[in-house]
Amino acid sequence: MARIVMKFGGTSVADLDRIRRAAARIKAEAERGNEVAVVVSAMAGVTNAMVQLVRDAANLADLREYDVVVSSGEQVTSGLMAIVLQSMGVQARSWMGWQIPIRTDDAHGSSRIEEIEVADMERRFREGQVAVVAGFQGIDKQGRITTLGRGGSDTSAVALAAALNAERCDIYTDVDGVYTTDPRIVAKARKLNRITYEEMLEMASQGAKVLQTRSVEMAMKHHVRIQVLSSFEDSPGTLVVDEDEIVEQALVSGIAYSRDEAKITLLRVPDQPGVAAKIFGPLADAAINVDMIVQNVSAETERTDLTFTVSKADLERTVAVLRGRQEELGFADLLSDHNVVKVSVIGVGMRSHAGVAQQMFTALAERGINIQVISTSEIKVSVLIAEEYTELALRGLHTAYGLDAA
Questions:
Q1: To 5 degrees, how large is the angle CA 158–CA 221–CA 94?
Q2: Does the reported pTM lie above 0.90?
């Protein structure tokens, strides 16, 4: 007998037929003698509809009330799932985040989990009951409903698995695992049997949409084994595990890309101490996240050009903040470009192999693709290129690193 957490995303519970299909999987796990906790998202499209209702109601809504509204979809799904399971002869009950309780901080809209109390749920397990938990929800110290940010049901599931000391956390979604790159673009992309937490974290943060970044961080911290599976096919998925569970590491495990990038270049910035802090300080104050940064060599002495990237959603605000401080910062002009994409090659095997970046640069150069910005970490090399070359770059790099399926 094992203890398992099963999480079903919005597309997996989009209607009653899909809820019944998911319930059949849950029933099969329970009949194997396993203790099962199920975490569900809102039905596909419901959360977006709730968010839009809030926006239509008020431009600047109280975030505490925002959480009340947008968390309602998960309540509906959990109740429906419990009803369907009961109709199949499975003992089940629904749990809201506040009933468990899942205790969070009070950063409404993007709260972080502080503690999960599972004693009552464990007692129900011993009675043979399946727990159906509304994902995305928590409760703060004031007793108000909180939400964990978009994609937060993944985090709910991993956190619950950690609190329950579950054998693994199965994430059911509309894909059947983690691929070496986006199979919609690269037909020869391969499904990975296993991937490390670090690689999955980089893949998620660099644009892969399979798992929410915070859920992978939590899984890595608490050593929760995640399995990514398809809700629609009975096929093996991908296990996300500690590095020591993977016998032989590939040089590169995957290639991720993000279209949510915009580039800003400040021309002729004073080349003196403290200028970078003056530029990036106001952006941080405005909650604008800066990603890739490069200081260019300028033809002038005592002047330099500074290039960095932000999300496309933050581009207009970033330009407004910097233009408003142009005289104080002393730059001559500002150039912006939203037609860019970030491409990243990722693999823990990079730690012990040289030449990974050179191989990337060569593959792109052979295809006439100009690199605008470069950033690296221990297991990742990222480049910024023109958006029109996205597909060419992904296919070329996938082949160059030997990732193509046979």
A1: 15
A2: no
